[in-house]
Specification:
- The protein is an alpha/beta fold.
- It contains 14 helices and 15 strands.
- The strands form four sheets. A six-stranded mixed sheet has the order 3-8-7-6-4-5.
- The chain starts with a strand and ends in an 8-residue tail after the last strand.
Length: 392
């Protein structure tokens, strides 16, 4: 089959819609369940490339959680601490390596991952399927599925959950095309290989040390950015993206957005947040939303008397600004990647507030000296990759 008809395009009024191979070759995907749409396939193909490259770069099983053609999270399989298992709501599950990778990819930003598209670098096993079965998700792409996993996934969304199998050996044409306003754009595919050598070739700060964990996390950040709508910045720690700032017109806004998400990820590990007295009947999405409100400065206004009873068995004490500031002051070991150069040192100042110690960016700004000086002020290690990673 070299074409597949879709219900509609980005919006219901955009018909007809289909995916097809212009060269007559067979489509590299097979729909095993459901009926994926236009945006589903955009998410599927972008997310598959991301996890495939993460696996190639790190040697570890990888997963991604996509929304609107940008990753909400991405991760490789590492050992989850008891704290992370609890805040990702998987402490009651047996997790295989690929299931752990997805738990981390989804858990980093659970609000953004609501209704996500999932990508796995490896065969979807029953542990991953059981994790997915209790989350709100639109679909999944993977190179294969165990029979048990497929049966579990087919029970989602009243039997309509989208399950796509992709040929892992598929190689796209080296030239790609895109139509905009009736005009065809043509460019070479971005086949740039992101690896450890890219990080080590031009370390520009006084501190020249990248830990092994930092190297892994910087690879995760850069590969994630390769498939994130630009401008974009990514914070990573512990084998996963913990904050992705996508599609901003200003570099500092990317850094702030991603940094705020990274802060929320870390604040969710505060003992007050981990011990919130939720009612037993609270749904997962409501719990995620409530945690976000609890962490915010609007907590007292939003969860006023007469409202908190909807979520908690008792009204929790607020997490004060002073407590949040003190907790975030212990944040460390974070890696930061940027898809284009930092034009000012203010990006580094903001990154420092979210525990960043390692930076990878293309370089090339007329103010590179200012950015380097700011990194040196905080003892950060920064490399210039010389490679821009815009994605549109």
């Amino acid at each position: 089959m070299n074409e597949l008809m879709l219900k509609y395009g980005c919006n219901p009024n955009q018909k007809p819609s289909k995916i097809f191979m212009q060269d007559g070759r067979e489509l590299p995907v097979e729909v095993l369940n459901g009926k994926p749409g236009y945006i589903n396939f955009l998410d599927a193909f972008n997310s598959w490339q991301l996890v495939r490259e993460l696996k190639a770069a790190t040697g570890l099983p990888a997963a991604a959680s996509f929304k609107h053609v940008s990753p909400a999270g991405a991760a490789v399989a590492t050992e989850l601490s008891d704290t992370l298992k609890k805040i990702y709501f998987v402490d009651d599950l047996e997790l295989s390596p690929i299931a752990s990778a997805y738990a981390m990819a989804r858990g980093a930003d659970r609000m953004s991952s609501y209704g996500d598209w999932v990508a796995l670098s490896d065969t979807c096993d029953v542990q991953t399927a059981k994790l997915l079965a209790r989350e709100v998700s639109d679909g999944i792409i993977a190179p294969d599925y165990t029979p048990e996993a497929l049966e579990v996934l087919k029970t989602k969304r009243k039997g309509n959950y989208n399950v796509v199998k992709i040929d892992p050996d598929y190689v796209p044409a080296p030239i790609e095309h895109k139509d905009v306003f009736g005009v065809t754009f043509e460019q070479g595919r971005n086949e740039l290989k992101i690896d450890e050598a890219m990080l080590m070739q031009n370390i520009v700060t006084e501190n020249k040390i990248f830990t092994e964990e930092a190297k892994r996390d910087l690879l995760i950040a850069l590969i994630t950015l390769k498939y994130t709508q630009s401008n974009s910045v990514c914070y990573a720690k512990g084998g996963q993206a913990i904050g992705v700032g996508a599609g901003q017109q200003s570099r500092i806004h990317c850094t702030r957005l991603a940094g705020n998400k990274a802060d929320i990820w870390y604040l969710r590990q505060h003992e007050k947040v981990m011990n919130l007295p939720f009612r037993a009947d609270i749904r997962r999405p409501d719990r995620d939303n409530t945690i976000d409100v609890y962490i915010s400065d609007d907590y007292e206004d939003v969860l006023a008397d007469g409202i908190w009873e909807q979520f908690f068995t008792e009204k929790p004490e607020p997490l004060t600004r002073e407590e949040k500031k003190a907790w975030l002051a212990t944040f460390s070991g974070v890696s930061l990647g940027s898809d284009a150069f930092f034009p000012f040192g203010d990006n580094i100042e903001r990154a420092k507030r979210s525990g960043v110690e390692f930076v990878a960016q293309p370089g090339g700004s007329i103010r590179d000296d200012n950015v380097i000086d700011t990194c040196n002020k905080y003892g950060m290690t920064m490399c210039f990759t010389g490679i821009r990673l815009f994605h549109h």
